[in-house]
Structure prediction request, 145 residues.
Amino acid sequence: MNDYCEFQIDHGFYVVPMILVREVLQVPLLSPVPLAPTILLGMTCHRGEVLPVFEIKSLLTSDHTENPPPARTRTLVLAHDETVLGLQVDQISRVSAPDNIEPEVPQETPPLWSLFQTKEGSRNLRLIHLDRLVFVLNSLLQEHA
Prediction:
């Protein structure tokens, strides 16, 4: 059984496989990137690597209001293939092993997440598909280049 890192963005609960998680950081000092889309919060140097940090709330929810980051905001550093990136999340909840994967209803474009159910059945979790997310982020960055 796989372990997942559970986190919250706005009022939604999301998970990514722990194998993709490099580490969790306090919000780092970010250097803005001129003319970049607003989804790219900025770049930081972390452990000798340049790390882009993204705010993906607008991709995951229909709520596009800008609120100040919660006090427990963290940057989740993820590695996928050759890509390392940071995601700003409202808080890290826990490491869990959700079961009973609920298939997502097919859509025209593949969703960025699929539904999971917690073992206790108390809430839904959304599994982030990092390969799809990286593709969407790269597309948005290329549009602004």
Notes: Residues 100-106 have pLDDT under 50 and may be disordered. Helices lie at 57-60, 130-143. The chain is about 10% helix and 45% strand. The chain has one domain: 4-143.
